[in-house]
Amino acid sequence: MRQRRWIELLKDYDCIIQYHPGKANAVADALSRKSVGSLAAIRGCERQLLEDLRSLQVHMRVLDSGALAANFRVQPDLVGRIKALQRTI
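^ thats the sequence. predicted structure below, dont judge the formating
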């Protein structure tokens, strides 16, 4: 469900999300295994997209190369719904 929200948000913007397989990018592969989330390089996005990402609590930073890196945590909605229902019982 949450991934669907991200797709809906990003489809209106002209941006490129680049993916590098782990074999091609060992540093990114090591970082993606950390539990805090994954990093994605985003280029060519408008200011409104950046504001939307900040409102969704996406942590962003500019790398030395000038690329923009984003870090966010995704959790399944099902787990949250189960926990909420358990609290009501």
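Strands lie at 16-18, 38-43, 59-62, 68-72.
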